[in-house]
Amino acid sequence: MSADPTADPRQDYDARRTRCPVHTHAGHVTAYGHPEVLEVVTRPELYSSAVSRHLQLPNGLDGAEHATLRALTDPYLNAPAALREIETVARAVMRELLAALPRPATVEAVSDLGARYAVRVQLRWLGWQPGREEELLAWIDENRRASRSGDHAWTARVAEAFDAIIRAELAPRRAQPGADVTSRLMADPGLGRPLTDEELVSILRNWTAGDLGSLALCVGVVLHGLATRPEVQDRVRQGVPDAELDAILDELLRLDDPFVANRRRATVDTALGGVPVPAGTVVHVNWTAANRDPRVFPDPDAFDPHAHAAANVVYGAGPHACPGRALSTLELRVFTQELLHATRTLSLAAPATREQAPGGGYATLPLTLA
Ligand code: HEM
């Protein structure tokens, strides 16, 4: 791991992919190339998602079980009515955050804006106690430090602390169900029975713990992209259709994908890009490297939202592709629209520092809003 806070892990991923799109290290295989990553994630008959010993719903399931759980949970994240509710919440939260900021102001865009926005929207959407905002912000920070440390005991303690927060939200709803999303999920009869507490904790953990940090990192990448591309910033500030803004956001994330990697386990002896993969091998897919593969994006650093859209894998591919894509895109769109509407310029106030592997994007991004 590099000690230089401005060192960009993408350079390392690019170099590895150029040397060989598939690497083997200490019995693990990592796919860095775009075709190889797609091969892993679109062939569940060769690569299982059951990698963790913890219950992971829906991401640790395969086949029919996985499809059943996705059918139950996806509508909470991407049904048009759900998205309308989230849009109202997201706009209100962003306006509150902006109203509280003096102008001109220098902010730390990842934690002061991105993480706070993600947490506040999520708390209101799920109907959780507003008082949990500081607790969840502190949790995101500790989770980041724990995963960077490589200390598994610390990571496990941090994960348990999050599960305790979720259980504390479930308990009062058992006694008195409300109308919020959490209560609706608890009463969902989609499996022919209510979900168990363990299942609820796992699903809600995926909607929150896994994604609050990702959304904050996405905010950092998007704002860095806009601050360093004033012409794009101006065009968006003047107003572009939602679909065009969404394509711009996806492209900024493709260039510098902060959601770096996921895992699978080979279920049969197979080969990937010519590298033998014995049954049982853990295979990592590096989305960040795949999104910059010149075999698919001939000029990977070029900003070209339309030409690059079809092959963009920021939100994954295959049966496990992100069910939160519409929700995240909506949150990022609302964030960007409101911020650009409320400012004349946003520019870097100081050099950004990079999040170090296994994370992606920026750890800190000092921005001046005027
Ligand atoms: C913030 C930006 C986000 C990015 C870049 C992102 C990216 C991804 C990617 C690449 C996958 C595929 C994982 C794999 O193949 O193993 C995934 C899966 C998933 N994402 Fe997201 N995600 C984001 C936000 C969200 C949000 C906000 C939610 C929910 C509220 C969410 C829920 C999930 C779930 C439940 C899965 C597992 C799906 C499955 O295994 O079937 N994501 N995400």
Automatic annotation (TrEMBL):
Domain of life: Bacteria
Gene3D superfamilies: Cytochrome P450
SUPFAM superfamilies documented for this protein: Cytochrome P450
MF terms (GO), sorted A to Z: heme binding; iron ion binding; monooxygenase activity; oxidoreductase activity, acting on paired donors, with incorporation or reduction of molecular oxygen
Keyword Protease: no
Pfam families attached to this UniProt entry: p450
Keyword Aminoacyl-tRNA synthetase: no
Keywords: Plasmid
Family of the protein in this entry: Belongs to the cytochrome P450 family.
Name of this chain's protein: Cytochrome P450
Organism this protein belongs to: Deinococcus ficus
